Amino acid sequence: TQLLEQSPQFLSIQEGENLTVYCNSSSVFSSLQWYRQEPGEGPVLLVTVVTGGEVKKLKRLTFQFGDARKDSSLHITAAQTGDTGLYLCAGGSNYKLTFGKGTLLTVNP
Amino acid sequence: ETGVTQTPRHLVMGMTNKKSLKCEQHLGHNAMYWYKQSAKKPLELMFVYSLEERVENNSVPSRFSPECPNSSHLFLHLHTLQPEDSALYLCASSHSPGLADSSYEQYFGPGTRLTVT
Questions:
Q1: Interface contact flag, B90 A42, Cβ < 8 Å
Q2: Tell me: the pLDDT tens digits for B97-112?
Q3: Under a CB-based contact definition with an 8 Å cutoff, are residues B38 and B44 in contact?
């Protein structure tokens, strides 16, 4: 069974701070997705990384895929209250996605 | 309508009721998924349909019955549910999994919040 561990589980910071959340596994994935989910809504796809060592930037968000394609990180610079939400990573393998439990981020004004 | 839509958004049902959840995707995808999201657990994949054929049934109890009449529509028929089935039920769609050029990107609907009393 493939498992994705996300850390930290909860994170509460002040607006303007930087943060990094992690997604780790002992399994190799063909690709890795990051999603953000707001209360009462479905997850929204933020990015897909497919190549070991790949780095993608989306405005203030930087995503990195580990060289061995087993782990990933999401770094947010100068967090804003609108970044509040549940961040989910999902690994793609054998035609389906395996999700982590998520990191619940709260950005306080 | 754009993206993936789900109805109803909220549903309260008794254990003896029969109800159905509906999902529709407007993205031109040919694979659709049902997930269950409970507190403190990862998203649980329930069913996968690819090209209108069920390709995955993840040991889901028979009180959940999926139906995929075409590549744009997916239903989840519910009967004789238990209180522990209360959860957010999410529908997603993607290009058909397993194809050489397919990514694993899935696009989710807003979910149906189900409460079983």
A1: yes
A2: 665 555 678 999 999 9
A3: yes
